[in-house]
Each structure stands twice: as C-alpha cells, then as structure tokens.
Design goal:
Elements: H1 9-18, E1 21-26, H2 28-32, E2 45-46, E3 49-50, H3 51-54, H4 57-62, H5 64-80, H6 85-96, E4 102-107, H7 113-117, E5 122-124, E6 127-134, E7 140-142, E8 184-188, H8 197-209, E9 212-216, H9 228-234, E10 238-243, E11 255-258, H10 261-268
Parallel strand pairs: 1-4, 1-9, 4-5, 9-10, 10-11
Antiparallel strand pairs: 2-3, 6-7, 6-8
Amino acid sequence: MTLRQSSDMTKFKECLNKAKEVVVLSGAGISAESGIPTFRGAGGYWRKYQAASLASPEAFRNNPSLVWEFYHYRREVAAKAEPNAGHKAVADFEAKNSSSKKVTLITQNVDGLHARAGTKNLIELHGNLFKTRCTKCKEVLVNTDTPICEALANRGAPDSTVVGSDIPIKSLPHCKKGSCGGLLRPHIVWFGESLDPNVLNAAEVAMSTCDICLVVGTSSVVYPAAMFAPQAAQRGAIVAEFNLEPTPTTSEFHYYFEGPCGKTLPIALNI
C-alpha cells in the first residue's frame, strides 16, 4: 500500500474526478438502511431457522414450501422498501457522468433496490428476489406478483412459534411455459452453488480495469466478491470503503469513510 489509509474526503474526490472507470461494490449494509434484514450474524434468523439453512439446494429439495415461505417474506419486505439516499447517490453519479466515465455497480444484494433507484450498468452477483428459475426447463423470468401465488398469500411472517409449512407442493409457483409445469425456485445463488459464469466474468472484467473502487456496505467476507477489492488495491487501483464500522479488509484500502452509506455516499459522489 503506497498510501496510508485516509478519511480525507477532498483527496478522495480528486481521485474520483480523475478516474475513467469506476466500480461500486455494494453489500447488505446499504440496503439495511432501507429496512432490508441482513440475515447475517446473531440476528440472522427467520422464525426458528437460521436464514442460511434455508438458502440452499438441499433445503429446497427437502422442503420447498418452507423455503418459498421464507422467500415470499423477503420479496414482500423488499417490495415495500424504498431505495435510500445511498442507492440514489450511486444512480445519480452514473447518470451525471455517463459521457466521461464508465460506472459499473456490482452488488451482492438481491432486493432490486439499486435498479429501482435508477442504476443502469448493474451486475447482480447473487441473483434477484423478483426473478424465478424453473427447476425443469431452467427458464428465468422476472416476476413481481404479490403474492407470487395464492397459496403464499398472508404466509411467511417471521413468527417463531410457526414450525414448518403445510402448503402442498402443487400449490407453489410452477412454470407456465408450454406444458413444462416445473416447480419454480427463486433465482438466487444459494450456498453450495456457483455464481453464473457470465455474471462472474463481467464482474471480474470490471474489477480488472477500474481506476477506483468504492466498497459500500459489505463486510467483505463472502467469496468470491470478498477478493475483488483487495485484488484491485494490489494492482494499483484506488479503493475506498464506506461502512458503519471497519472490516477485516479495511486496512488494505486507501480510504475509509465511517457512517451510514445514505449520509457518506451523497457527500462523496457530490449528490
């Protein structure tokens, strides 16, 4: 590291102004400010289940009804949430600099708030709550229906006294393409699954050529995204972290700005 870690906003803005390729790498922290549960750490429970235990192919095979209740709850929460000032700052920065900079947003979030804020050049590493994938024909479709099927209406509340799910599998969302009829699943990259190679490649290309990277609301512990910013810093790109508190990789970056993204990003991006 040639520069000491700094919280000098003026110098950061000078670097940002000179940059031709900018990458914003966002995580759960920015959406937490819009009321989206992070499902990480001690509070990462839905009912009596640790959220991670429901976000796997095995969980879906064993109890698709329970997993769909969990994801229906997440869809409802995300649908009611609004993009905050942090989301909007990134989208506005992209729009205002479209002729002079290439701005790419790589997000680990699945809530769709960046797109709703207006971001165009968006890479969603882990999928999207409002997309489904057929387990039979593999077709991926956008689906914003509320509820996604009648059987899930008024279901999915995080009530710790509720155990399991009694929704018949035939009543869950199914593919409507021709005569397929396959069971639909959320188009989410679950634990134990690999990222879409095309999505991962697009992210790696952006990270390999950016002049500056903003790490926003992510603890940098989920791989492979956890290596993106450290690798960029190692090759000489300027990396600035925006988080509520330091993370394991903070010391590897040039700049660190502490506080809610909804307050620090608008200042940093001149919004």
